[in-house]
Amino acid sequence: MRCKFIAIGDVHADFELLWEALRAASCMDAAGLPTPPVLNGTFQVVLIGDLVHPKSEREYARLIGRPSFDAQDPEQLFLAARAQVRQLERLRRYQQAAPASVHIILGNHDDVVINAGYLLGTAGGLVHIEFDPNRGGILLPPDLKAWFQSFLRELRVGRLQFAHVGPLPSMTHYDDLFYADHTHKRWWHEHPEYVQMSGLSYGVYGHTQIKDGIMVNSTNRFAMIDALTAREYLEVLVDTEAREPLVSSRPVPF
């Protein structure tokens, strides 16, 4: 059976852009629900992880409808959390309407929301604490937490892999060793051979934003797709009955 995988990079709370991508790929209808090709499995949707935490103060401000954002203001933290919860509930309705065709990978930002302890932030000093009650935020609602806990560490179709960070098993668990090792941010250009060394025919990964949109490494057979803000998703054509399921892949602008 041939089917099309629509792989979308890190969301980081830019849900409006996510909805645009899904609609452009004919995966979401006007009611925000899966289209017939998604419902019947002809189209498979893969979200590569990191649903939460806007990437910048500007994006936080836009999320809460304020001219600026202060991570030390409890009211603004609450507004940021509430806005994300509303959109996460909408995404959950979408995913649960076609659970066999909509796959969500657990990103490290998603993991820290349900397993508090690590403080994530940016090089510019922004910290993501809206879902950390120990730092002034709120807990993710229990029903959404249970949903997050159901997310995949990876998705495999034969030797085709979708994962948040990279091809190695150690890159799917976000513990002290993960955060102490910077390989997860640099492997794709320092050790691109990791994909084939892992016995994979092709890999699709996020986590590391590439400046000019989706990066396809044809030689080492992988794609880095943290490119939602560049308005691109990856289209992967797969033959699920073939020994090597990958037929083709290409970045698609929307």
Number of E strands: 10
Largest sheet: 5 strands, mixed
CATH topology, which one? Purple Acid Phosphatase, chain A, domain 2
Give average pLDDT, whole number.
97
CATH homologous superfamily title? Metallo-dependent phosphatases
Shape type: globular
Tally of DSSP helical segments:
9
Oligomer: single chain
Strands of the largest sheet, in order across it? 3-2-1-9-10
Low-confidence stretches: none
Span between N and C termini? 27 Å
Short summary:
With 254 residues, the protein is α/β, with parallel strands linked by helices. The chain has helices at 15-24, 36-39, 57-64, 74-97, 108-114, 142-149, 176-180, 183-190, 194-197; strands spanning 2-8, 43-47, 102-104, 154-157, 160-163, 202-209, 215-217, 222-226, 232-239, 246-253.
Please describe what this structure looks like.
This protein has a single domain (about 1-254), classed as 4-Layer Sandwich (Purple Acid Phosphatase, chain A, domain 2), CATH 3.60.21.10. Helix 3 crosses helix 4. The radius of gyration is 18 Å and the shape is globular. It has helices at about 15-25, 35-40, 55-65, 75-95, 110-115, 140-150, 175-180, 185-190, 195; strands at about 1-10, 45, 100-105, 155, 160-165, 200-210, 215, 220-225, 230-240, 245-254. A hairpin with a 4-residue loop joins strand 7 (about 215) and strand 8. The strands form 2 sheets. A 5-stranded mixed β-sheet has the order 3-2-1-9-10. It has a 5-stranded mixed β-sheet with strand order 4-5-6-8-7, covered by helices on one side. The chain has 9 helices and 10 strands. The two termini are about 25 Å apart. It is an alpha/beta fold. It is about 30% helix and about 20% strand.
